[in-house]
User: Which sequence fits this backbone?
């Protein structure tokens, strides 16, 4: 592994996520509280690679693992400002990159998911985010959205 490549991935994925979170929290702290006493919710995106990183994913897994690791401490810190922090860790999803792959590759990837045996859909990710926003007791947690997949080493 090249240090420069590792540092770049961690800088983009982890430091970038932290920077956006801190800026969003700063702005949300100025909000008046709503009827439930909340000023906002920050939802980060990690990856199942944070838990099941594959060969060749050291930097990516470390960067997403950092997002997972900062979820609870930041939720505790921002609770004083009435801001919740959550993280979603998606599995194999229908992203533009994956949809650009041959259909047989997409199908094979989907078949590795225990149930439902397919790629995750953007609307499922959006529905989970919507639920996190409306369920005010969700705070400081990471939710895997992955059809129970556990990635193999390679």
Assistant:
């Amino acid at each position: 592994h090249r240090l420069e490549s590792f540092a770049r991935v961690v800088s983009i994925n982890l430091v970038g996520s932290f920077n956006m979170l801190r800026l969003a929290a700063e702005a949300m702290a100025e909000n008046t509280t709503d009827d439930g006493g909340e000023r906002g919710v920050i939802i980060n995106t990690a990856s199942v690679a944070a838990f099941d990183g594959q060969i060749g994913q050291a930097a990516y897994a470390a960067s997403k693992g950092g997002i997972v690791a900062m979820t609870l401490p930041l939720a505790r810190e921002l609770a004083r400002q009435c801001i919740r922090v959550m993280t979603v860790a998606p599995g194999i999803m229908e992203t533009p990159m994956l949809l650009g792959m041959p259909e047989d590759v997409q199908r094979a990837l989907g078949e590795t998911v225990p149930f439902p045996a397919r790629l995750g859909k953007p609307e499922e990710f959006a529905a989970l985010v919507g639920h996190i926003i409306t369920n005010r007791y969700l705070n400081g947690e990471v939710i895997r959205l992955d059809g129970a997949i556990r990635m193999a080493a390679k």
